[in-house]
Amino acid sequence: MKTVRELFSELDEWKAYKPSSTMSSIAKSNHIMRLKQEIKNRIDVEEYKDYILLKEEK
Rounded to a whole number, what is the largest CA-CA distance in the chain? Predict the structure, then answer.
């Protein structure tokens, strides 16, 4: 199982990837959505509640 740090790193790589075809573009979008969902599933919102609320105020 990958760490959250590894998932973010992979997400950055996929965001930087320049697809050369429609299929590659679809694959890029799917990978990004999957990684974001996996990251969201790993983060405990309650643990970061204060930080999230602070960011909302700005």
Answer: 42
Query: What value does the CA radius of gyration of the chain take, rounded to a whole number of Å?
Result: 14
Tokens of 27: 């694959």
The neighbour count for residue 19, using CB atoms within 10 Å, is: 12
CB-CB neighbours of 7 under 10 Å: 17
What's the whole-model pTM score?
0.80
Q: Does residue 4 carry a pLDDT above 80?
A: yes
Contact 4, 43 (CB under 8 A): yes
Residue keyed to tokens 């105020």: 57
Please give the full DSSP string across 2-49, using - where no structure is assigned: --HHHHHHHHHHHHH---SSHHHHHHHHHHHHHHHHHHHHHS-TTTTH
